Amino acid sequence: MEARLDYFADPTAGKALKYFISAGRALKEAPLPASTQELVSLRVSQINGCAVCVDIHTKEAAAAGETPVRLNLVAAWREATVFTGAERAALELAEEGTRVADSAGGVGDEVWARAAGHYDEEQLAALALLVSFMNTVNRLNIITRQPAGDYEPGQFH
To answer: How many domains would you assign to the chain?
Structure first.
């Protein structure tokens, strides 16, 4: 598979992506646990079918010490016993924040309250921004059919 477009070779896309990538780096520095960030990024990417982001976040999480069992169970987190209450709340928020078209109300109050029971306001802001960021990145990659499989951990750092 070959990408339809090389964003970094295009002057307009390159200029816009410079700012977008810096926003992503700022999120990495947020007080939301790195493992939670990778699990959320992976789950959003699975839902959207973004192969390149699934590749990236699976490999980054593994390189950071995430176990294969947990990575393999992200798609079925509701039935899995390997996630903490906080991680489960973050994954639930990520799913509702990604599937907004499936619910006229968007993220429900109960889902938000469960997340707020585990994360402070700064972490909730980071979580909301991360879900939104990943949905945008997924769409950019899906629209242009960016290929997956060749990512090396740390490649974009």
So the answer is: 1
* Domain presence at residue 60: yes
DSSP 30: S
Domain of 136: which CATH number? 1.20.1290.10
Q: Does 101 reside within a domain?
A: yes
d(CA 155, CA 27): 17
Residue pair 23/11 in contact (Cβ under 8 Å)? The answer is no
| Residue partners of 9: CB distance under 8 A and separation at least 6 | none
Show Cβ contacts of residue 30 under 8 Å, excluding neighbours closer than 6 positions.
37, 122, 123, 125, 126, 129, 130
- The answer, as to whether pTM is greater than 0.90, is yes
List the structure tokens of 92: 């639930």
Q: What is the pLDDT of residues 113-134, one digit of tens each?
A: 999 999 999 999 999 999 999 9
pLDDT digits (tens, 9 = 90+) for 37-82: 999 999 999 999 999 999 999 999 999 999 999 999 999 999 999 9
